[in-house]
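#data-curation
PF: Archiving a pair of folding outputs for the training set. Convention for this channel: one message per protein, sequence first, structure tokens after, nothing in between. First:
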Amino acid sequence: MADAILPRLALACLRYLTSAFSFAATPGRTLLAGVPDAERERLLRAVAEIYSPDRVERRRLSKINDRRRKAARVKQDQSVLATTGIWQIVHLNHSSPPAPELAAQESNHR
């Protein structure tokens, strides 16, 4: 049950903090000057963990995002190419040449 509530609570806190920071006259860490040291450290540690989790996890997420971007780009490129006339002609009438081994066998049988 707590696992279901936690993302919504984090989102509410994030919205509150971003709205508070947007109304501040001086942006940055100076907003945290009046916050007790222990609380400021907890906040900064939590932000750091969200922004940059451990190195292995960060790399894994980065690779996943790179793959998704590349797949989306390839899909978009393929959809554009599929609509071009020459692409349709080539793929409709495409016949590949025989493999080199088969071509050599055919020439030996003649």
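PF: Second:
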Amino acid sequence: MKIEEDQALDAFAALSQATRLQMVRTLVVAGPDHPLRFAGGEEGPHPYLAVRGGLEALVARPVYYELAELALAEACEPPGLWSGGAFFALEPDS
């Protein structure tokens, strides 16, 4: 059976799209195995969540604002969140 180049590219594109969809649907909860960290930047902190195998996901800005609102409502010093039995301060890495 001979596969034409266009068919191979279509199959690769479909597989690539399926892989992206699978990655998007992965639910990761912050905790000791999936730490939440904040990297400092000129535009403010950038929150990252460890996903797996050294891969980190940048947390969307609206989600970060929701997390910050929850942390500030708790009035902890420093402001932060508890998740999975671990505390994550909303402070940039040093």
